[in-house]
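A favour, since you know our structure tokens better than I do. Go ahead and set the record down below.
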Amino acid sequence: MALSQLCKHLVSSVSRTIRPTIISTNRSFYLFGRCNNATLVTPHTFRRTAFTHGAIAAASESDPSTAPISRNRKATSMETQSFVVSVAGSDRVGIVHDFSWALKNISANVESSRMACLGGDFAMIVLVSLNAKDGKLIQSALESALPGFQISTRRASSVAERHVSPDTREYELYVEGPDSEGIVEAVTAVLAKKGANIVELETETLPAPFAGFTLFRMGSRVAFPFPLYQEVVTALSRVEEEFGVDIDLEEVVEGEDSEEDDDSPNSPVGRH
């Protein structure tokens, strides 16, 4: 048998054995925003599928409801709102789980949070986002999940636009020494007078039996213009002398190893 006749024989045998399903359709296929009328040849079952991220979507001309949503069409879903939620109550195991479980059931999302045990109580403040006009749904869900807890929900304030000096820098402020009344007020008074913004602040007291007093610690992150650095240092030095505490003020330098020696001569901000 000649080679050409052999090839024709093989092609004929294969075509009789495999009969692909041929689907002819006028359905429009949207691929990355481009519409193409296509004729599909496939042995598989064809399904109309819409992908949420818009990679591929099939829409029938006879069924407009399956067509991709126009960019000019108004979204039917409610705009996502942010809410500040505060929770406080007697400490026990499982509080955070119960809290997160309640939010999950109403499709709410936790954006950021601060949680801590304070004495025998557990407290948290959380930024939550939800497609709702108010926080009633969040409040109701959390009251059911955390009976006996004090819960407050309010819409988050919009971030106020304020002038920030181009030479403003962030600093980490540490205070440690014998606990006494008025330390936090004295330190924050200095910061307020110099126009420093407190970004974060935490305090704690610890027993110091060998020293014979209760140890006070404060950690804070503050922001103020760099030219005011020496004035802030001088004012904080007076607080050190008055209360007998040690105060460190270190510039936050992004990307640098926190274990580097900040007292080096080349460091723009050292310790005092």
